[in-house]
Amino acid sequence: MQYQIRDHDRLASAPDSVPYRVLEDGKVYVDYGPVSMVIMADKDGRPLTDLCCQAFAVIEEALKELTSSLDLLRLYPGQIPLRILAGLPAQMLEAVLAVEEPTLTPMATVAGALADLVADWLFARGAQRVSVNNGGDVALRLAPGQKLNLGIMSSLAAGQVDLVVPIKAEDGIGGVATSGLGGRSFTRGIAQGVSVFSSRCILADALATHLANTTYVPSPRVLTTKAGVFDPQSDIRDLDVVAAVDRLTRREVRQALAQVEQEALRQKHKGNLLAMTARVQDQMIQINMPGSQVEQNPGQAGQAD
User: Fold this and answer.
1) Which string of DSSP letters, residue by residue, matches 182-249?
2) Nearest Cα to 135, choosing from 234, 205, 65, 48?
3) Rounded distance between C-alpha atoms, residue 110 and residue 179, angstroms
């Protein structure tokens, strides 16, 4: 997920601002600069509210680290000198390099990277079940024997959870990210939503952005424009992004889903992807999904051939 972090310095200097609040026991909401994060953690069924609050310091330090490398993180991977980055910025570069998509900048992983960092910190301090939701990209840490149910939006624009996925520690899933039309960041594809399950949220974030992009099909029903028209400071301002999509034909939907399925299987073979679900208009495909349950079926409006 690509979002801006340019407001960090202003917010960090506001001593009267309250960066987080307790929503309920073991559940804390952080609203700080570009970060909109819900942190949940427990141990032996006991909520770890204080520990969740303390995790704010991890976010604050991470934003400072990212700000110092921001100019490099906005470049395409091939433009970044080898071994110039360290720490969290280096992890972001490694994630996009693993995906092997040259137009994916490290900023495509920033939400997942921050979620992973907080989840690791909580888990290292004794939490047995951790969920860190950073704007829809979720880092999970589950001790052996632990499990949880995760809600997924197959359509970001609709904004409703319509899939519930049971996840166990043994599944090896450490991150889930969703990208598509109506999300917080630009997309170059036509999917309502592509949700990726990976071992780390930073990798799931990069993959979700990439796989959503692969759903693009040329069509008079798809309107594109340069990302820079919407945001002159975007790291992909020179690339076309999808601005609007009209009703697609069945053939176009099938083509889009075939493209994302092919690339998802390639990423699974490389070991990057554990599972995926993708939706283009009314049609969905799933790959290796844990026992998900559909809560609401997508609309069944007709399509032309």
Assistant:
1) TSSS--SS--SEEEEEESSHHHHHHHHHHHHHTT----TTEEEEEHHHH-TT-TTTTSEEEEEE-PPP
2) 205
3) 13
Q: Domain 8-294, what fold?
A: T-fold (3.10.520)
Q: Note the pLDDT of residue 17.
A: 64
Domain ranges within the chain, ordered by starting residue: 8-294
Q: 298: number of CA atoms within 13 Å, CB side?
A: 21
Crossing angle of helices 56-68 and 87-99, rounded to 10°:
70
Query: Would the pTM of this model clear 0.85, i.e. be above it?
Result: yes
Kindly state the average pLDDT of the residues 170-183.
95
Secondary structure class of 16 (helix, strand, coil):
coil
* Secondary structure E strands in the chain: 20-24, 27-32, 35-43, 46-47, 129-134, 137-142, 147-152, 163-168, 175-179, 193-198, 222-226, 240-245, 275-280, 283-287, 293-294
- Are the beta carbons of 43 and 126 closer than 8 angstroms? yes
Query: What's the rounded Cα separation, in Å, for the pair 262 and 146?
Result: 32
SS3 content of the chain, % helix, strand, coil (to 5): 35, 25, 40
Contact between 147 and 274 under an 8 Å Cβ cutoff? The reply is no
The 10s digit of each residue's pLDDT in 204-252 is 999 999 999 999 999 999 999 998 998 898 888 899 999 999 999 999 9
The structure tokens listed for 226 are 């340069």
Under 8 Å between Cβ of 55 and 39 = yes
